[in-house]
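Worked problem 6 (solution included).
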Amino acid sequence: MRVLLYVLTALTFVVGTQLVVLAEHTEQFFSWTIAVPMSAAFVGAGFWGAATVVYWCARQRDWARGRVVVPTVAVVATMLLVATLQNLSAFHGLLGLAWIEVYAIFPPALVAITVMQLARPGRDPRLGPRLPGALRGALAVQAAVAIVVGVVLFTSSDAVAADVWPWALTDLTSKAIGTWLVGTGVTCGVVALLDDVACLPGWAVAQIVFGGALLVLGLARFGDDVAAELSLWLIVAFFLSMLATGLAGSVLAWRGGWFAPIAGVGGFPVELPVEVRSVSD
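Solution. The predicted structure is:
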């Protein structure tokens, strides 16, 4: 599992860099052409956020902390595979072929490795104190909003997507943006359900990276692509809330010393024995 997560970290960081830094040149430097740079920046910011949390999870010595990212990776990989299969004609060149191959291979590989991990004996204890009620509630709201909007974008026609989104979308970019919203929502939901401060660091920094990259490297650069309508301000408000919860989670985890991997017995993906840094209710 650790090797898979490190490979995924590298892939998501490279793709995110292609899309954010070279948002206006996707016809040359990406797997498919994205005509609207703001869409490229949004999808790239999602990849950067994913790279952040996946890297943190890969560094953990125990499954109880590293499992945070697995449901999100499974959902995002599957949704991007579906979007890819529905838009095969949009992909071009060697980069397009590489994209198709990666998303054809990765989901079943992840399922197989996860099943192997879950078959190992052991327990998954809660390692740290519970989350503050306000933070957990905010995560639940963010999860619900992101998943609902993401599903709408992923399943809607171009016409419906145009009515609810402040810049032009194709079927493929609508599905890609919807995928990252659903992925964000799933991660927030998982962290809220785990209710464990020890699981906050990777998620919290990823929130900051995704929100900051979108607002600073996306909207600030490509504001001309975006219509100044209500949906835009709702998007801005949502990503500002991501920055706020990410910062709150980072401070909480930093004060508790949870950013460093636990120096436990064994190594990831071995489950952590109950007696090692577990916190009683």
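Discussion: The chain has one domain: 2-255.
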